[in-house]
Amino acid sequence: MSAALQGTAFGLALLSTLFLLLATCTDCWMVNADDSLEVSHKCRGLWRECVTNMQDGVRTCDQYDSILADHPVKIVVTRTLMITADLLAGLALATLVLGLDCITFLKEDPCVKLKMCYGAGVILGTGSILGLIGSVWYAVDVYVERAMLVSHNIFLGVHYDFGWSCWLGMAGSTGCFVASVLLTCCLY
């Protein structure tokens, strides 16, 4: 039972870590689309902003000036939290691989391997919470930005939606959290 639970937690942690990495690297955290004309589709990310022309499919991207330049708080905080979550999830994944029963590392001491799995679960849980905070922070800021435009009658037919990168960050963080619960609560 323990090996099956470890395998399930490892698979979920691996998939969720990949989701977190993709969410951090991709550029569609917030979608701006023009409702009336449907001419272009704009995605804003943590690192750049891309516009896709809906008629011919041409995509152009503008990199943000510099990582050290002044950026909105939502971008800086989300970058920091997502990069930290990625690093912690990667560390937890490496620790979990060494703690798996099917790996011959420290095979003669199963207590240490169990503690490594437990430690990986704690690290993964910490990373998942940071990733979830970063993703939700960005989503709430997008919602507030949209609500401010609507309340000031500056709507102009443009709508703001959460991009697929934001949803991927939330899914990856949730998956890491579930894997953490499996490793810390259910493994014993």
Automatic annotation (TrEMBL):
It is a multi-pass membrane protein. InterPro entries: Claudin, Claudin16, Claudin_CS, PMP22/EMP/MP20/Claudin. It holds the Pfam family PMP22_Claudin. It comes from the Eukaryota. GO terms for molecular function: structural molecule activity. Claudins function as major constituents of the tight junction complexes that regulate the permeability of epithelia. This is Claudin. It comes from Picathartes gymnocephalus. The gene is Cldn16_0.
